[in-house]
Design goal:
The chain contains 16 helices and 15 strands. The protein has helices spanning 39-57, 73-82, 86-104, 119-131, 213-222, 237-252, 283-289, 292-300, 312-329, 331-339, 350-360, 366-390, 397-413, 424-428, 432-447, 451-463; strands at residues 4-7, 12-15, 23-32, 61-69, 135-138, 141-144, 187-192, 207-209, 227-233, 257-263, 266-268, 271-272, 308-309, 466-470, 476-480. The strands form five sheets. A four-stranded parallel sheet has the order 4-3-9-10, with helices on both faces. A hairpin with a 5-residue loop joins strand 14 and strand 15. The chain binds one RNA strand of 75 nucleotides through strand 3, helix 1, helix 6, strand 12 and helix 9.
RNA sequence: GGCGACAUAGCCAAGUGGUAAGGCCGUGGAUUGCAAAUCCAUUAUCCCCCAGUUCGAAUCUGGGUGUCGCCUCCA
């Protein structure tokens, strides 16, 4: 099986081939750090982190870079609101970002370049673009002349003549910048300093970089002229990624990235989750109410390119589903000793692995891969229940161990890990002896048809996490949790 | 107005030419004093609609309809 990916550039799936054998240079457009991240950001960060894990598991060495945009009007506005500096706002939300992602179990990128740390590279690019005739200065600003780049629009599949300036309604055609542009779709590479705003020296006067240029500079600086994978949210396809291509390729004459992958948006009641619509839920609010693993399952159960509806019900479903998976993942911790699992060896079930790989190799179909995990988890859970109820496993022990090891391994690729239950509740709770006594009391009570007393004991034990299982013949067995 | 994506059971969702994965919910039976848990069974004659290609299509082609995204804030 070979990995196939859907490339936005070609609007089709193709085999994934790297520039250097077994190495992947990967760049993800990160966030502008002016506020707490919401579920939409979580989807992007989580999906591409899992993609990176999968590539690593598949044998690639991945160099994964994700940026922080820390120069931006929105950050400045926030700084004014909070009576602080752009830098302080950026630091605050970068710290929050790392906190949120850690809670979600999203791994760290290999580097997190920031716009403010990339000024030299940015200025060099702007300079080169100007030298090559792709950029022009205007009253302290510098603009990119999109008409000079014949391939402009190739990523987003649009032609300049088809585009309608201002159609999104977000930009006034009469705004301050408009008169400086030679053409409505030209975009700012450099913006002249405004009174009281942070600024950097440059050949065009004091100012700050435009938004798109930082990614071009960072990719070039960190990964080279051409990278393998450039990823990000689908809403960045145009203009952000289109502009990155225009900037980078005009200078280098080489493709910026061989594969452009975009994830779908989170939808709330039919509309994209976004700051401007106010229909967002922050990651921290979400995690106050749902387990991180449930959120992960919610996200990974839908193909990454599809829109994903956020509803309470969907998260609740994901929570229930996670319980099933978790049970399976804990199988070895619960029953391994009893079944005599060898802790050292890690035998794998090749059949399951190849099915998983076949599913996920098709454009990162994690949902298809998850189906296999559930299949195994359910099977293990069944075996565990038989073990609890009957006292013996009916399935071959080695087979179970292999399935379990495989489940744990595959789940780990997707970032699913279950914490074995802490034994604390046990130490604070009742001793085995005390439980046995209570169980016996209940058996006696039931023999005397005193069901009220029996049920009371059952309820008390249940409240402490001890479940009683009545078996035919008046026997009662129990287990913790 | 332009460009693009998607449309599969009650809900979510995989499958992209060979006769419908998986999850959640539900139902029937076993078991039980009743529960819980568990076990067994069960839940789309059919994949938005209409035409076409084919021995055969959810899967390809054409035409509709609907939903969503983007058209310089955007994950």
């Amino acid at each position: 099986m070979t990995l196939t990916v859907y490339n936005t550039l070609t609007r089709s799936k193709s085999e994934f081939q790297t520039i250097e054998a077994n190495k992947v240079r990967m760049y993800c457009c990160g966030i502008t750090v002016y506020d707490y991240c919401h579920l939409g950001h979580a989807r992007t960060c989580l999906i591409w982190d899992v993609v990176r894990r999968y590539l690593q598991w598949s044998g690639y060495e991945v160099n994964y870079i994700q940026n922080f945009t820390d120069i931006d009007d929105k950050i400045l506005n926030r700084a004014r609101e909070e009576g602080t500096s752009m830098e302080a706002v950026a630091e605050k939300y970068i710290a929050a970002y790392f906190e949120d992602m850690e809670r979600l179990g999203v791994g760290q990128a290999d580097a997190y370049p920031r716009a403010t740390h990339t000024l030299d590279g940015i200025k060099r690019l702007v300079y080169e673009l100007e030298q090559k005739g792709f950029a022009y200065p205007a009253e302290g600003d510098v603009y990119y002349a999109v008409q000079k780049f014949p391939e402009y629009g190739k990523l987003s599949g649009r032609k300049l003549e088809d585009m309608q300036a201002g159609a999104s309604g977000r930009v006034g055609l009469e705004d301050a910048e408009a008169h400086k542009k030679h053409y409505p779709f030209d975009f700012a590479l450099w913006k002249a300093a405004k009174q009281g705003e942070p600024a950097w020296e440059s050949p065009w006067g004091n100012g700050r970089p435009g938004w798109h240029i930082e990614c071009s500079a960072m990719v070039r600086e960190r990964l080279g002229d051409t990278i393998d994978l450039h990823v990000g949210g689908g809403d960045l396809t145009f203009p952000h990624h289109e502009n990155e291509i225009a900037q980078s390729e005009a200078v280098t004459g080489k493709p910026l990235a061989n594969y452009w992958l975009h994830n779908g948006m989170i939808i709330v009641e039919g509309k994209k989750m976004s700051k401007s619509l106010g229909n967002f839920i922050t990651i921290r609010e979400l995690l106050d109410r749902f387990e991180p693993m449930a959120v992960r399952l919610f996200i990974l159960q839908t193909q990454y390119r599809k829109p994903l509806d956020f509803t309470e019900e969907a998260l609740t479903t994901a929570t229930n589903s996670w319980e099933t998976l978790k049970e399976g993942l804990l199988f070895g911790d619960r029953y391994g000793e009893q079944l005599g699992f060898a802790t050292s060896s890690t035998p794998q079930n090749e059949e399951l692995i190849s099915r998983f790989k076949a599913a996920v190799d098709d454009d990162f179909n994690f949902a298809g891969g998850l189906a296999i995990l559930f299949e195994v988890a359910k099977n293990l859970n069944k075996a565990g229940n038989i073990l609890v109820h009957e006292g013996t496993a009916k399935t071959d022990t080695q087979e179970l161990e292999q399935q379990w090891q495989t489940l744990v391994e595959l789940a780990k690729i997707l970032g699913f890990e279950a914490q074995p239950e802490d034994r604390e509740s046990n130490s604070q709770g009742l001793s085995d002896r005390e439980i046995e006594d209570l169980v016996q009391q209940r058996i006696d009570a039931r023999k005397n048809k005193d069901y009220a007393a029996g049920d009371r004991i059952r309820d008390e034990l249940q409240a402490q996490g001890i479940t009683l299982i009545d078996k035919p013949g008046g026997m009662t067995i129990w287990n913790r949790g």
